[in-house]
Amino acid sequence: MAVQTLNDLLGAGVEGRTILVRADLNVPLKDGEITDPGRILASAPTLSALVEAGAKLIVAAHLGRPKGEPDPQFSLAPVAAKLAEVLGRNVQLAGDVVGQDALARSEGLTDGDVLLLENVRFDPRETSKDEAERGKLAAALVELVGDDGAFVSDGFGVVHRKQASVYDVAKLLPHYAGNLVATEVEVLRKLTAESERPYAVVLGGSKVSDKLAVIEALAPKVDTLVIGGGMCFTFLAAQGLSVGSSLLEESMIDTCKDLLERFGDVIHLPVDVVVADKFAADAEFRTVGAAEIPDGWMGLDIGPESVERFAAVLGAAKTVFWNGPMGVFEFDNFADGTRGVAEAIIGATGKGAFSVVGGGDSAAAVRKLGLAEDAFSHISTGGGASLEYLEGKELPGLSVLEA
Fold first, then answer.
1. Which of 35, 105, 162, 355 is the most exposed place for a label (fewest CB within 10 A)?
2. pLDDT tens-digit map of 310-349
């Protein structure tokens, strides 16, 4: 990626200048409390480098999926509080995105100050399909920064979106890739252009349809494709097995049959599963063979024999990409599959493999299960963006940064 980096911007000097950073601070909340601050922690190095160099910092970010208007449940207030704690300095939260409060606060910034704009998706222009509308919001963001400002793209989790604060603003200001974005691209390049064999991919999550494009892109290129999570039941159904009341995409069964015909030597499916009588943490559960799921019961995790088999192939890998949990890891009784596969990847990493955890639920699982983050080579912050990069798609938020 031939782009200017944060080091280029720091080398040019930022003291006294206002810098707009698009960060990915889209953290999970429960009852207003942040349950996993991973993305805030990942954004901190770029933000700290700028404020310590004397920049006046304006941060744009989103949280959740508000419908283009202010919604208190998606306010960035808890994010501002956590960011202040992480940075060790006061973080102002604007009462709006580019309105009177944001403008007044931006004009009052002094060197080293940090202003977090309210959820940028409260403004419908952020996600508009109309380029002119997005351009108006981008111009308003530039107005906050002023004539000698610059834009740093550091929200890798949104670079696959053509949105005002990701794409359009980069066309109006001198633009740079933050450390997080630069690192993510370097890592993903290793997975595509420079991967060492054997190369294993682990895919989980609920739907085959969500992962179909990446399966199609990676299956011809890898040695092992392990499939778990809710999506495995559509593959099992494609083999003619009964899956009880497990998650099933009936419209994808023929697609899975085709994938198994073409890539059956690469695809590895569970041979046993942990089934439950209902979707609940306190459900009755037991382990059964993949061909023995009782009617009315649902698979919520892969079983121990599957973990053992998957661990054997993962342990021999030199490159591993993991995206998606193996089961409902949020419930303790259905977390062992995800834990077992994660530990197998850690074991391979310890023997010299290059391992990447592909963001989203996988990264959350690593932290919830108490696994050491530095036991993996890299934990991505961008699930969807990572997958689209690996599929070979052009990511607008990256292409706009190219010099």
1. 35
2. 999 999 999 999 999 999 999 999 999 999 999 999 999 9
